[in-house]
Amino acid sequence: MPITNDGTIQTLDRRVDMNGNIFVKVYAGVSMVKNTGILIAKGQYGYTSLALFNATTTALPRVLIGFPEESVATGSTAWAQIGGYTASAIISTTTATAGHMVKFSAGKLTTSGATAQLDNTFAAFAAAKTTSTVHALTLFPEQIKAVD
Question: Which contacts (CB < 8 Å, 24+ apart) does range 17-23 have?
Fold first, then answer.
């Protein structure tokens, strides 16, 4: 198993807190900003963060969407939440309707505008909110298709 710049060893282990929220240890392939959504690819030696990009023209395997607990530079590691409730997820500017799905599309994390779960939806809005970038979400801890 590889040892990262901060001396930690990468694994595919998950951490579950007392509220049932699920986290994975992520190697920062790109810098990660606290509570800001990232793509997480599962590799042979662990999870790696990828920048959000327009995946409609780029082949990409199924990915996780996560929200780092802390900001870290490229080459470091941090825990990222992939499942359960989070009160302050940073996504694209959008208006939230409770129960509507959140999707990854065209390089952005945004509302799907519907309650049906699709291949690229990774969460549901936990509360209604007017136009904002910070939202309460219930995250689904599963890999999604990164294109529409």
Answer: 17/84, 19/84, 19/85, 20/83, 20/84, 21/81, 21/83, 21/84, 21/85, 21/86, 22/81, 22/82, 22/83, 22/84, 22/139, 22/141, 23/69, 23/79, 23/80, 23/81, 23/82
